[in-house]
Amino acid sequence: MKAIILLICVSTFALADDPDYHFSDDFVFGAATAAYQVEGGWDEDGKGESIWDRGTHEHADWVADNSNGDVACDSYHKYKEDVQLLKTLGVDFYRFSISWSRVLPTGKIDQINQAGIDYYNNLINELLDNGIEPYATMFHWDLPQPLQDEGGWPNRATADYFVDYARVLFENFGDRVKHWMTFNEIMQICEAGYSGGSFAPYISNPGIGGYECTHTVLLAHGRTYRLYDSDFRADQKGQIGLAIDSYWHEPNYPDRETDQQAAEVDMELNYGWFVNPVVNGNYPDVMIERVAKNSADEGYPQSRLPVFTDEEQAMLKGTFDFIGLNHYSSDKVYFADEGAGDHPSHWADTGVIGYQDASWPGSASSWLKVVPWGINKMLVWIKDHYGNPPVLITENGFSDYGQLDDYDRANYYKDYLYEILKAINEGGCNVVGYTAWSLMDNFEWMAGYTQRFGMHYVDFNDPERPRTRKLSSYVYNNIITTRHVDWDYYPDWPPAEK
Ligand code: NOJ
């Protein structure tokens, strides 16, 4: 019986004669979560309200299982247990996010919540005491509601408030946190939050809201980086990056020139949009041109894409110590004959149609098909376009419905990590580390708790929120400790001890 299970489960992507590449000793491995998705304690000890608190409370029926993050994994109380899970997993670092409203309940520095500072101090100290480096994300989508009441990210003043908040973080935690990510997935913050209205604050303003939001966010990122340079870097000696998500966009017919161009346009308008300003100081030329042309055709007096001044471009250029990459899946793309999407919209500005090949294995998330070679091409594209910057993979993972013998997740990690090894060894890519999403099952935004990404199962029906190791946690640990992908390794299952 066991032999049959193994046969079925062995990764479909491995070839017997693939080289046995190894991760170098300085390559770091981690696991990730985010505040709203795991902490709970949504209004405890002086925490203020965030847009996700407000959104899920006001529109419970918009979330798949009518749930919210009020309690989530209860990490606000159970962080010590989380740290033990991380320790057993064998990771070098934990990527968590800081809830702005827990630290600054109004979003502004007029009120600093000492209990919030204490919570993150306790978490950071507990991690360090257990030999795990804290990697902190400053903003993983949970904007303080009072700042949304003033317009949220499309309001340029939000950048001022963010930089004030960042200073509080550097002052309180920068002596121990040496890796910072300013923002997580600007595409989701801005396009989903302010263009499409599918994520909090659920604002629908296609073709405009996402661009205005992104402009403020990028300025906030750049100014935070410069603040670190001027006031903290010499003492604290840390690194700052940001986590940008992207599919790999593959030409529909790889040999067809127009499909190749469509893929390039799609990469620039969906990924270069955020990374080019940070590396080179401005939006990609092709994006500036396409949005300007569409805006003119639509009768706008000026481009819907905001403009960085020369001074802002100089400020933004080079504001990264590493590029964080959140990557899960890929699609195939081609130019739409009649234009893509309604006008105005970011999608119409790309002019590109994407789809996922029916032969690609699926997951519990409709958007997540398993395409391991996509991460390889993505990494090579980054190397070629931005001068081979250090890339930290800040998220990668697989969703299912919660089974403990999660062979599909384990194989996903094996297949994607092997493609990363190939990108390093054959593509010459400067990949410095890898973060598995996620340490444990958690609140998957509009999917609630129906889609699970964890290497640990969390029982959300039990008030104690017990965590249980899944099979993938053993496989990830094996990769970390052996520094390579052992295609044959699976733990005995079920495990003898918990
Ligand atoms: C992207 C986000 O950063 C994270 O919050 C989310 O849960 C995962 N990817 C999976 O969708």
Automatic annotation (TrEMBL):
Primary enzyme class: hydrolase
Signal peptide (residue range): 1-16
Subunit: Homodimer.
EC number annotated for this UniProt entry: 3.2.1.21
The keyword Signal belongs to this UniProt entry's keyword annotation: yes
Pfam families reported for this sequence: Glyco_hydro_1
GO molecular function: beta-glucosidase activity
Keyword Manganese: no
Catalytic-site annotation from UniProt: E395
Family membership: Belongs to the glycosyl hydrolase 1 family.
UniProt cross-references to SUPFAM superfamilies, sorted A to Z: (Trans)glycosidases
Protein name from the UniProt record: beta-glucosidase
Record keywords, A-Z: Glycoprotein, Glycosidase, Hydrolase, Signal
One GO term (biological process): carbohydrate metabolic process
